[in-house]
Amino acid sequence: MIEIRVHGRGGQGSVTLAELLAEAAYYSGQQAQAFPNFGVERRGAPVTAYTRIDNKFIRLRSQVYNPDYVIVQDVTLLTDPKILGDLKKGSVVLINSSKPLDNLKVPQGVRVKAINASGLALEVIGKPIINTIFLGAFAGLSGLIKLSAIEKAIKERFEGDIAKKNILAAKRGFEIINQN
């Protein structure tokens, strides 16, 4: 089973990202679940969402404590040591950052990848909405979900021009993460 934890702030689309990951995994022929964990809902407050992907039925219903992948949509959240403190060897951390993350302290055996999702979102979507960029970047990093499945999940969630821009954003996230 692959477990993914998404950290963001209210309004960044963290819950939508977790749900789209699960839907795209399903359309890729896998079992999946997604669920949020947050306190008082308000824009800008820390939000955590989870996704599990497996090739068999998922019975586990707890939070994700030792993820295989961590997506950090807001680099300022890294001041919380719990975000990177419980990673297992082989985990991958995907962070929204336009700056090098050379001084980031991660457990040994953990890979860190950065993508300037905010800048890319402004370029492609025209707004700093970064969840579909991370959707594509995750697909590129993991190989677990297909771009065609991402496109189908996005088309079910959004319509018209918004869907087209988000599909393009996912494709760009996929391409850029594979260039680094």
With helices defined by DSSP (H or I, 4 residues minimum), what is the helix count? 6
Shape: globular
Radius of gyration: 15 Å
Second-tier CATH architecture: 3-Layer(aba) Sandwich
Structural category is alpha/beta
Number of strands: 6
**What's the domain count?**
1
Provide mean pLDDT, rounded. 91
CATH class: Alpha Beta
Distance between the termini: 26 Å
Low-confidence stretches: none
What percent of residues adopt helix (DSSP H or I)?
A: 25-40%
> What is the string of helix and strand elements?
EHEEEHEEHHHH
CATH superfamily: Pyruvate-ferredoxin oxidoreductase, PFOR, domain III
Strand content: 15-25%
Structural commentary:
The chain is α/β, with parallel strands linked by helices. The chain has one domain: 3-Layer(aba) Sandwich (Pyruvate-ferredoxin Oxidoreductase, domain 3), CATH 3.40.920.10. Helices cover 38% and strands 21% of the residues. It contains six helices and six strands. A six-stranded mixed β-sheet has the order 2-3-1-4-5-6. A hairpin with an 8-residue loop joins strand 2 (31-37) and strand 3 (46-54). Helix 1 (14-27) packs across helix 5. The two termini are 26 Å apart. The mean pLDDT is 91.
Key structural traits:
180 residues, alpha/beta, Pyruvate-ferredoxin Oxidoreductase, domain 3, 6 strands, globular
Concise description?
With 180 residues, the protein is of the alpha/beta class. It has six helices and six strands, in the order E-H-E-E-E-H-E-E-H-H-H-H. Strand 2 and strand 3 form a beta hairpin.
